[in-house]
From TrEMBL:
Signal peptide limits: 1-29
Residue intervals passing through the bilayer: 228-249, 261-278, 293-315, 336-354, 366-387
Oxidoreductase listed as a keyword: no
InterPro entries linked to this entry: Cellobiose_DH-like_cyt, DOMON_domain
Keywords attached to this entry: Membrane, Signal, Transmembrane, Transmembrane helix
DOMON domain mapped to chain residues: 70-161
Highest taxon of the lineage: Eukaryota
Protein name (Swiss-Prot/TrEMBL): DOMON domain-containing protein
Pfam family, one: CDH-cyt
Length: 417
């Protein structure tokens, strides 16, 4: 009887423990309906949840330091044809802007207003981090791709913007090229179901996702680097030397032919990567920015002066073969060639500064270039002048004035010589 009494009193305790264990397992199962990737190198977290088979929505939680211009995720294995969600600080730098975008190639993604995204509680700039806790409505499929809810290796990508300030309420705000990116795979089966408490739970543990390849890949825009370096060398070294040869050292036309050929080749070499990177960004795809317009005009003028110089050389050589002096018009042509060449150099100096501004370089960097460019000009002006003074041809004496002088002072007393 005593044992029965003890058992009767213990049953409620066992029942309570059993219920706690059962609810704990249910809660744990609910909490695990989220797949999370954590990248320690950038302190970036990406969590994904599919509410259930009856819904086409995708819940997401993104967190990254606000040192980056933006943080973006994409559903797909590559930049092209992926559905992207880009988060960046809003104008007040307290809230955030979430921008759904598409890209058809290796270009800046374009805002897709037909994709509806809702930001949930907890989104904003918090503890110096960009936090986006939201829902992308009807985002399991789009025109160029879809999410496989039954896949344990759904491909996804992420990207982080460079350390250049961006705070805008505009979902179409222009973006700089990312400074780092990565590919990862997500277990969508694990991520399907009700997520207890939502996704807004910071964590530093990866679960249900795995980085692919080498993890975070540092992005280096080699085309942009080549474009900038080549034009800097052209404007600060090659152009001033060629201008010196063309305008002051006229006694060495062969040297001018060599230097101008190198000059033109480097300009074309810098133009090619410039065209390549122009196609990557929305702002520059139409070649309508000041930097692009002035650059193309300058190159057209330069090409015209190359043809001008060739024609001038042919005229002079033809006259020399005939044993004649070049025609008088060649002198004017030489002056036009020389001064327009100097103008081209000046335009390249100015346009490099516009390029730095277009690429959103820091003010200190732009000012540093301006000081260097001005220093080159100031240093070379007296050099040009000195060489010009030393190499200019003396003016011919006026023979008529000497004859008059001789007539006045060498007459005999009889009035004749």
């Amino acid at each position: 009887m005593a044992l029965l009494g003890i058992f009767a009193r213990a049953c409620p305790v066992f029942a309570w423990l059993l219920l706690c264990l059962l609810f704990g397992q249910i809660a744990q199962a609910a909490d695990t309906a989220v797949s999370t990737l954590f990248v320690p190198e950038t302190n970036t977290q990406i969590s994904v949840n599919l509410p259930g088979d009856s819904s086409d929505d995708v819940n997401f939680y993104i967190s990254a330091p606000d040192w980056y211009q933006y943080v973006a995720i994409g559903f797909g294995s590559d930049h092209a044809n992926s559905l992207m969600l880009v988060a960046y600080p809003a104008a007040d730098y307290n809230h955030i802007t979430i921008s759904p975008r598409f890209s058809t190639g290796n270009t800046e993604p374009i805002f897709a207003p037909e994709i509806k995204v809702t930001l949930n509680a907890g989104s904003g700039i918090k503890n110096q981090s960009i936090i986006a806790n939201g829902t992308c409505h009807g985002c399991r499929s789009w025109a160029t791709g879809s999410i496989n809810a039954r896949s344990t290796k759904q491909p996804m990508i992420f990207a982080l913007g460079p350390n250049v300030g961006l705070s805008s309420d505009n979902p179409s705000a222009l973006l700089r090229r990312h400074m780092g990116y990565g590919h990862f795979e997500v277990d969508m089966i694990k991520a399907t179901g009700a997520a207890a408490g939502g996704l807004g739970v910071p964590t530093n543990i990866t679960s249900g996702a795995v980085l692919v390849g080498d993890g975070l890949e540092r992005d280096r825009n080699k085309a942009a680097t080549a474009h900038g370096i080549l034009f800097a060398i052209v404007a600060l070294a090659v152009a001033p030397f060629d201008t010196l040869v063309a305008g002051a050292l006229k006694r060495w036309p062969t040297l001018h032919a060599i230097s101008s050929s190198l000059y033109f080749a480097m300009v074309i070499g810098a133009l090619v990567p410039g065209i390549m990177i122009s196609k990557e960004h929305i702002l520059t795809q139409k070649f309508s920015t000041g930097h692009q317009v002035l650059g193309l005009i300058t190159i057209v003028i330069m090409f015209g002066m190359v043809l001008w110089g060739i024609a001038l050389m042919v005229i002079k050589k033809s006259a020399k073969k005939r044993g004649q002096e070049p025609p008088e018009s060649s002198g004017l042509m030489s002056k036009v060639h020389t001064w327009v060449g100097r103008l081209v150099w000046l335009l390249f100096l100015i346009n490099n500064g516009l390029g730095l501004k277009l690429s959103e370089q820091t003010m200190m960097f732009v000012l540093g270039y301006a000081v260097l460019a001005a220093g080159v000009v100031i240093f070379l002006l007296p050099v040009y002048f000195c060489i010009w003074r030393c190499t200019r041809k003396p003016k011919p004496k006026d023979e008529d004035s000497f004859e008059l002088h001789d007539t006045i002072y060498n007459q005999n007393p009889n009035g004749y010589r």
